[in-house]
Structures are given as C-alpha cells and as structure tokens.
C-alpha cells in the first residue's frame, strides 16, 4: 500500500487481522500490538487509497476532475 500508512506508535505498515472479520473487529499493529482501528474503517481507508492511486497525479491535483478531451 503506497498510502504511507503506518502505526502511530512504531511506524510499521503491517497489521494483524482479527479471526472474525466483522466491520467492528479491531485490527492491531503486527509489530507492537497497538490497537489501530476497526476493520471496517481500515477497509474504507484502503479502498479510498486504491481509488486515488488509480487516478493520475494531474487528476488528483485538479481535485478529481476529468481532463478535457480537447486538451488530450
């Protein structure tokens, strides 16, 4: 994941998933064990980052606007 996500305590990007993946289940840092956030919130964060990664840098700077076909 290129989002720069990392545990606020130790900086590790690795997470430990709960046995039951419900949206309310808490995920933990795989390095230090710190509780990070609920699985549902983490999924939404990853999905949003993936959507941003699919857009080009120019589109992100323009606030998500589609480029004008005439300027292509």
Number of strands: 3
Terminal residue distance: 30 Å
Main sheet properties: 3 strands, antiparallel
Radius of gyration: 16 Å
Q: What spatial order of strands do you see in the largest sheet?
A: 1-2-3
Mean pLDDT across every amino acid position: 81
**Structural class of the helices, strands and pairings?**
alpha+beta
Strand content: 5-15%
Biased composition (Basic and acidic residues): 51-62
Region (Disordered): 51-72
Protein name: Transcription factor zinc-finger domain-containing protein
Organism: Methylobacterium ajmalii
Describe the protein in words.
The protein has 72 residues and is α+β, with helices and mostly antiparallel strands. The chain has helices spanning 39-54, 57-61; strands spanning 15-16, 26-29, 35-38. A three-stranded antiparallel β-sheet has the order 1-2-3. The chain is flat, with a radius of gyration of 16 Å.
Describe the SSE topology.
Elements: E1 15-16, E2 26-29, E3 35-38, H1 39-54, H2 57-61
Antiparallel strand pairs: 1-2, 2-3
Briefly say what this structure is.
It comes from Methylobacterium ajmalii. Helix content is 29%, strand content 14%.
Features:
72 residues; alpha+beta; 2 helices; 29% helix; flat; Transcription factor zinc-finger domain-containing protein
């Amino acid at each position: 994941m290129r989002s720069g996500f990392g545990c606020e305590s130790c900086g590790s990007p690795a997470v430990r998933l709960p046995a039951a993946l419900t949206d309310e289940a808490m995920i933990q840092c795989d390095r230090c064990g710190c509780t990070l956030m609920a699985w549902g919130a983490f999924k939404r964060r990853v999905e949003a980052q993936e959507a941003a990664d699919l857009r080009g840098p120019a589109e992100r700077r323009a606030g998500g606007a589609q480029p004008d076909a005439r300027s292509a």
